Amino acid sequence: MIRTLLTGILLSTLCTNLLAKPLVIAHRGASGYLPEHTLPAVILAHGMNPDYIEQDLVLSKDGVLVVLHDIHLDTVTDVAERFAQRKRADGRFYAIDFTLEELKSLRVHERRNEQNQQVFALRYQGHKTNADFFRIATFEEQLILIQELNRSRGVNIGIYPEIKSPAFHRAAGQDISKIFMAQLEKHGLNKADAKVYVQCFDFAETRRLRQELGLKAPLIQLLAENSWQESGSDYDYLKSPPGLQEIAKVADGIGPWIPQLVNFDNKAPTTLFTQAKALGLQIHPYTLRADQLPQGMDWQSTMALLFDWLKVDGIFTDFPDKVVAYNATQ
Ligand code: G3P
Ligand code: CA
């Protein structure tokens, strides 16, 4: 009797794992279609039914969490036209030098490069019509928006906030993680079963979130390359077997760059991939873009590689509708 019961549980777990579909994480909202992290991009992403919507978080001068990918403002807003005198000696405009009220007065546009050209040329071009409905959102605005859409639509789409540059914020006298934790608590989301993943590139901060600040929600350690100077973390170490073991003590998974998982020439998984799997770490790579696919690959072959062959547990994508549609065919 007990053996039959256990066999049933085992088979059911196996089936669940075999049928599990990768989590769809709307990267910066539906950023393939609308300016990243704006409320319209969040609303559009929500309607596409991903599992999670991502928020990159930085602080304003008055200590409010705002949803922005960079500590700088110049690549996605009109700050240089509006506040020309406020740039620092390095020529950049920093979100932390502006109050929330000032940040709210900026217009957000598609990401531009140093030549002021749109990075993804074919994406949203509404700036041509002088549209004025893309603004910087606070973390709390996005939280409330997603919770309300969940209620009105009868779904449960989660949030996937990233603490950006904690060391930079500390040097500026602000503790971004403490402010973040207060927001999670305020909205009842600091729970192990909350539909939340918290992410950070800085391993010291990942550890601090779990061990000092009392984070109970699932946690992902992001992985970069040392050459990117993303944080003070040593990514060569973090990608090694002892580094992954350290991560597994405090985090539920890793967020690697897609090329860190697979050799695109022979499609062989990397040691990082196999070691992370062996440790039971979830693997949520970034960033799948329909308009910037790995060299020599099309959408179908990329999906087959990531989902059918590697079987990653989740994916950050600028095009959540396309991944949701792919999942529906599986
Ligand atoms: O957080 C996952 C992915 O978004 C990491 O890259 O630079 O887009 O924040 P980034
Ligand atoms: Ca991110």
TrEMBL record:
Q: What is this protein called?
A: glycerophosphodiester phosphodiesterase
For this protein, the Enzyme Commission number is: 3.1.4.46
Q: Name one Pfam family in it.
A: GDPD
What catalytic activity does the UniProt entry give for this protein? a sn-glycero-3-phosphodiester + H2O = an alcohol + sn-glycerol 3-phosphate + H(+)
Supply the InterPro entries for this chain.
GP_PDE_dom, PLC-like_Pdiesterase_TIM-brl
Ordered alphabetically, the record's keywords are: Glycerol metabolism, Hydrolase, Signal
The family classification in the record reads: Belongs to the glycerophosphoryl diester phosphodiesterase family.
- The organism of origin for this protein: Bowmanella denitrificans
Occurrences of domain GP-PDE (ranges): 22-327
Matching entries from NCBIfam families are given as: PRK11143.1
- Which top class of enzyme applies to this chain? hydrolase
> Gene encoding this polypeptide?
glpQ_2
